[in-house]
Amino acid sequence: MKVNKVCCIGAGYVGGPTMAVIALKCPDLQVTVVDVRKERIDSWNGPFDSLPVYEPGLKEIIEKVRGRNLFFSSEIDIAIDSSDMIFMAVNTPTKTEGVGAGMAADLKYIEACAKNIAQVAKTDKIVVEKSTLPVRTAEKIREILDNQGRAGVSFEILSNPEFLAEGTAIQDLFKSDRVLIGGDSTSKGKKAVQALVDIYKNWIPIEKIITTNVWSSELAKLASNAMLAQRISSINSISALCEKTNADIHELSKAIGMDHRIGPHFLNASVGFGGSCFQKDILNLVYLCKYYGLEEVAEYWHQVIKINDYQKNRFAQKIIDGLGGDLLGKRIAILGWAFKANTNDSRESPAIYVTKKLVERGANVKIFDPLVSLSTIMRDIEDYKIDKDACSISSNIDECINDVELVAILTEASAYKDLGKELLIFDGRGINKNAKFSIGK
Ligand code: NAD
Ligand code: UGA
């Protein structure tokens, strides 16, 4: 089956970059990205310097393909109906109420997409799960599509989880370690899988495109994120022991990572992992294990989150202790608000948690992050109920670190590697040589 038009529901950190790369690599394919948030679509259609997602290399691709074979639109129904294949790349946050609140993934956006597709589609569609979903979600989607779709219209559901990391999204999409496609083993299922393989094989070597059953694909994504986060919590737990024993976590990471069976990646000790996915995906995994009665397995993975919380708190406490235990009236510079370098995304950023704790203890903070917009920082301060009168936002680094008692490094941006020797620096990323305190040292 030849696919000529695809549509992607969800114009966020996944939908935007993945569809831009598909459009670039498949010039004969028409790609439309839709979203309920009109302002997001407007800004994808707006000036190239203020696209809603910052990713190195993304702007240059959008300049090439927007208006050629990549379109951003608010006309969701039209895009769905005119496409052969529909990707669902909507958010799947942790539930905040109802059964599984605080643990399970909230599937209301994915269910809304499925209903929308069912109501609008007048011809057969391949529906692709791009969002990260609990194992067996395709069953729920099938139920919605079959019960609410028009008579005579049939749907194939594929799982094609996304493995890009923010800050390196374009590089990750160009050279994916693997592309995973889960589908049914029926003849229609196999044809649908092949249609998606045909898209990716335009730039991904065929041996890197893995096809599995739907459930393996759904669960492999959750398990991959859990394994990555588990490495960070493992090294972070050891960083606390290093601090007690004069061992150096960077020397350990190097020594451990040189074992080819372990490998060097994801062994950077830090103030803790952030981002919109690791925490919510592991909580979701924990919830699924409990749901299936696997208490020990649930507890094993829950520890990854508990160590991450411990690490964020530990860093904040080091700062409090470093300033003599009393922060009243103390001024602290927060360098880095995003959850990692090279992104404008601050979702679940450790900087937010550390700032909240410092402000609660009486500190005044100055925040600097050249990639995160003022409105995003203000929204975070409000959402996390941080006293906004105790926070100011600096537009340049010199102003931020001027006239403060302590400088806290929260992201690993290279601009924070070399700061003045006279400053009292607490480094949550182990990048600054003059730091008085550095995680794991
Ligand atoms: P996001 O919040 O940036 O984008 C999701 C978009 O979907 C939003 O703009 C929202 O308005 C839109 N949306 C929600 N419901 C809709 C509906 N019914 N119709 C139309 N639009 C709708 O989220 P994201 O970071 O792009 O993540 C999307 C999914 O991909 C999540 O499941 C996430 O776990 C997964 N994922 C994210 C990353 C990442 O790096 N951010 C990487 C891999 C996988
Ligand atoms: C992560 C995964 O790496 C992606 O494969 C996955 O697709 C994505 O989650 C997702 O499902 O959303 P992302 O969260 O964008 O990507 O970024 P990472 O590079 O994984 O970093 C996550 C957090 O861990 C950051 O706060 C980072 O600073 C921290 N980290 C990472 C460490 O503290 N130490 C490390 O060694 C690596």
Task: Please give a structural write-up.
The chain has helices at residues 15-25, 38-44, 58-65, 76-81, 108-120, 137-148, 169-174, 187-200, 214-245, 249-257, 278-291, 295-322, 350-360, 374-383, 397-401; strands at residues 5-9, 30-34, 70-73, 85-88, 125-129, 155-159, 179-182, 209-212, 331-335, 364-368, 391-393, 406-409, 425-427, 437-438. With 441 residues, it is of the alpha/beta class. It has 2 domains: 5-212, NAD(P)-binding Rossmann-like Domain (Rossmann fold, 3-Layer(aba) Sandwich); 223-438, NAD(P)-binding Rossmann-like Domain (Rossmann fold, 3-Layer(aba) Sandwich). The strands form 3 sheets. Strands 3-2-1-4-5-6 form a 6-stranded parallel beta sheet, sandwiched between helices. It has a 6-stranded parallel beta sheet with strand order 11-10-9-12-13-14. The chain has a two-stranded parallel sheet with strand order 7-8. Helix 9 runs parallel beside helix 12 (295-322) and helix 12 crosses helix 13. The mean pLDDT is 98. Bound molecules: nicotinamide-adenine-dinucleotide (NAD) and uridine-5'-diphosphate-glucuronic acid. Uridine-5'-diphosphate-glucuronic acid is lined by residues 132, 162-166, 225, 228, 232, 266-268, 270, 273-275, 277-278, 339-340.
